[in-house]
Amino acid sequence: MRFPSVKRAPKSARALKLGAIGALALLAGCASLSNHANNNATASVPPGPVGDTFYAPPAPLPPGKHGDVIWARKLTNEAALPAAAENWLVLYRSTNIAGEPIAVSGTVAIPKGTPPKGGWPVISWAHGTTGIANVCAPSKNGPDYLDREYVGGINASLDKWVQKGYAVVKTDYEGLGTPGTHPYLNGPSEARGATDMVLAARQISPDLSRNWLVMGHSQGGQAAAYTAYLGPIYAQDLNLTGAIAISPASHISVQIQYIENHPDMPGSAFTPLILVSLANSAPGVDLNKLLTEEGRKRIQMVDKGCIGELRRSSDGWAVTNKKLLNTDADFKALNAAAVSLTDVENVRPSVPLLVLQADDDHVVLKPFTDMMVSRFKNLGVDVDYRTYKIQGQAPAVHRETVPRSLHDAISWAEQRLPSGR
Length: 421
Prior knowledge:
Blueprint: H1 9-28, E1 37-38, E2 41-42, E3 69-74, E4 84-95, E5 101-111, E6 120-126, H2 148-163, E7 167-171, H3 187-204, E8 208-217, H4 219-234, E9 239-246, H5 252-261, H6 270-281, H7 287-290, H8 293-298, H9 307-312, H10 321-324, H11 332-341, E10 353-358, H12 366-378, E11 383-388, H13 394-404, H14 406-416
Parallel strand pairs: 6-7, 6-8, 8-9, 9-10, 10-11
Antiparallel strand pairs: 1-2, 3-4, 4-5, 5-7
């Protein structure tokens, strides 16, 4: 990326330094995390290092394929789900936006009790927007975590799934916590992260089924719908039975064009995340040209804070678009990148899809979700669309859709992925 203030060189330098420490932990890791049999195979992965060193993979990565576990350790922070018999923090192999092997972090929660025949069915959770800074990885949730309110509330709902007999796995996504820039709203990247998380979880515990369902909220709702298309292609040894998209982001390119054509409109905290991601993901997207001097200064905030801080900050992105964006610049490359990488409505899910949306959601607008659902139905996708009347302020309504729709989501999932309880 050509924009100096958002280069990730310091992050990479840290990764190299920590990676050397991590490599020693990998070489020393001869202990097995699990000795259960799975199709006459033995699951044995190295224990991961303590602290944030966990997120710095060895360089180069150990040999393997996407979905292989690099290392893991017991999870003890607030990312753990209380109803689980075991919670694990995992570093696993995936594939980045350039098609190269990378390390991605995530968590695994395994239910209590005896697994049903075939193993515990798996829910792969794709989280909503937290940010693109390393500190925003949901697996780091704890007393000092910057988006604790959102992630903690989501985990309360996910714990209900564990109680029902589902293993819940949660990817942090590419570049969140781990080296590299998080490609925010990049559908292929999100889908690979969510799918490889399931493959990795099955190496942690042979008690997990090959049958799984993907579910997500907001950014993760978009990720779930994209995984409904890419997941069965990317991991043919798994059996994806359906997808649940809650308040799914869609039509990102349309929203970028709207911002471009309304320079006097107040800016959004999501805009800098999209700009930095697309500038790192697509050739020809040059932030030096797209941003004003003020915009170039303020966009550095994405490396320091999470979405809650970007929203609350009095000197953040909440000024008019024309103060931050060079409206005379050529936005064609940016728009083209958004169409090809973020617009989930342009793919065709191949598994049944449940879409859950609040009527008065001012973060993910219902008209965009309506258009996405209509598009999918025209493509012959099996879509069940349900809406909810929820009162409250914009962020609260958006978040409340997850617990409000929980009963419907579980009932729908049970028909396609029975829990065994």
